[in-house]
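Intended use. Records like the one below are meant for learning the mapping from a protein sequence to its folded structure. Do not use them to infer anything beyond what is encoded.
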Amino acid sequence: MFKKKKNIESETNKSTSMRRKYLHMQIAQRKKTAGQKVFVDRPRAFSIRSKNLSSFITRFRRAGLVIGIIGLSLACIYVLFFSSFVDVTKIQIEKTGDSLSQDRLQPFIDDMKGRNLFFINGEKIATDIQSSFPNEVLVAKVKKSFPDKIILAISEYPSVLNFHVKSDAGEQKIVLNQIGFIIAQNKDFSGIPTLVLQSDKPLPIIEGTIIPKDKLEPIVTALTKFPEIFGMKIISGEWKKVERELHLKTDKNFIVWIDLTQDVEAQILKLKRALPKLDIYNVPLEYIDLRIAGADNEKVIFKRKK
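Structure written out for the chain above:
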C-alpha cells in the first residue's frame, strides 16, 4: 500500500512538472511574440512620423519661398513705378554745335524733370526736338541713365561759313550752317572760313536764310576741299555774285578763281594734276585761274608776282 501511494505521488509530480514546462513554454512564446511586435511596429511608426515631418518642412519652405518672391516683386514694383527713387532729377545736355541754346530746349527739359524714368518716351521726345528745330538739329537722342538721370544728346548741323555782306549801309556779319541756315548774327565763329560779298545794299534774310542752298553748296565745297587737298589755309573768300565766281585768298597770298556755274571739285582737282609743272608752294603767284572749262580741258592759267 505504501508503494502504491508512492507511485501516485510520483505520477502527480511528473504531471505537475509537465504542466509547469508547458506553462513556461507558453509564457516564453508570448514574450517572444510580444518582443517581435515591438521590434517590427516601432520603426514603422517612427518612419511614418519622420516622413510626415519632412513633408511638412518641405511645404513650409516652398510656401516661404513663394511668399518671399511675391514680397520682393511687390517691393520692386513699388520702388520702380510708384516711389520717387526713379524720378528724373538730373538732365545732362550734350551738343555738337552752338546754334541751339539751352533756353530754347528748356520746355523739353521741364517736361522730363520730375517724371518717372520708366514712363518717359525717349524716342518721341527726340522726334519732337528734331521737328521743332529742323534747321539746327541733325539728330537728337534721349538716353536714360538709372536711377534718375537723362542724357539729351543733340547733333547739330555744323557751322561752315562766316558770311560778311559789305554795302554802303554797313556790314552784315552772319554765321551759316551746313544747310545755309543762319545760326548767329553780328559775330564770327573761329575755325571756319569767311566769305565776303560786296553788295549795293544789305541782303534780305528770308526764313532764316540769306544764301539759297543751291548757291551755298558749291561755295562751301570750294572752301573745304581746297585746304583738304593742298594743305593750305583759306584766309578769306570773295563771292562775285554777278559774275558767279568765287575768289579764294590762300595763306600763300595768291588768289584762286573758281567758276561757280561749273563743277567746283573738278576745277580744284585740275589744279592738283598740274602740280608737277606748277609749284604753288614755292613760286610767288598773284593768282590762279581755274575757270576755263571744256571737255578734257586741263589748262590752268596763272600769273607770277613781279
